[in-house]
Amino acid sequence: MPVRSSNIVPKNSDAKSHYRVRHMTHEDLPQLMEIRRELKVHDVESCIDSWLTVDPQGINVVESEGGEIVGACSAIRNSEDICFMGLYCIRPKFQGSGLGIHVWNACMDHVGPMNASLNAVPGKMELYRDKSGFPIVETEFMCQKNYTSEPVDPNNLSNIIPQGVTIESVQEYHLPALFDYDFSIVGYERKLALALNCQEENSRTFVAVKNGSCIGFGTIKRTCLGAGRVGPLYADDPVVAEVLLKRLIMSMPLVTGFVMNTVSNNMTARRLLKKLAVPLKEELTRMYRKEKLSADTKKIFALYELNLAPF
């Protein structure tokens, strides 16, 4: 497909410096992660790689004539009628140049007539609502970013499993039940994304099983800044969620910090983070283009990905 925009001359720049917007490729990931580290964002390279496989045209980048990636934005198609927008970033030295609107527009072209949602950072809700075409504001919950640079102690969490429940490291034979369980939580199919999630390097996934059925699962991954990030973490029972969280943390001890992003109306998730002494850093406003998305948030203890998926 042709690029959305090319031969862009940013404001306040040498007119000989031209940029273009194009679809991101897997080979661009190292440069994108440089930007994310520069911005001190706890993204996971393998997770972005997986979602790019799900939607190969879902991420756009701004590239200089010399091949430098200076910005990005995503609009990942999570299903046939749902896009999720995120990863919006411009290298600090290029911010204010006017490049951002071009990569944003390319992503909106990809959204087309579909519904879309995003998480607005503090101070940007009115901009997305009034000028960017996201008029519907979520009122049931906020998305919460929780982070500590200190080690967390899994011994502060319970390891008592309800009778008949086993916690198992994910295997291929678990996947059909895991897919069905995920569908019951979010209401649409994410088989490819979940299969890739369970295969990512520097990650661990555990499944809670009872009578052959999945009743919860969770993943921990190493971020580009070296922290352990939990997500997704879903479970029918808060007790099971706590044991899953303990196992996840124990499975990845050599990390520098801990990240877990939650929904504000799951108070058990808040209590688990309090046990681990992980503070709330920022609240984001969920916004939608056409209609709200619903999910069983009482079973969502950690969001999958703040930039690439609604839940």
Automatic annotation (TrEMBL):
GO terms for molecular function: acyltransferase activity, transferring groups other than amino-acyl groups. It comes from the Eukaryota. Signal peptide: none annotated. Residues 19-153 form the N-acetyltransferase domain. Pfam families: Acetyltransf_1, Acetyltransf_18. InterPro entries: Acyl/Acetyltrans_Enzymes (IPR052729), Acyl_CoA_acyltransferase (IPR016181), GNAT_dom (IPR000182), YitH/HolE_GNAT (IPR041496). This is N-acetyltransferase domain-containing protein. It comes from Larinioides sclopetarius.
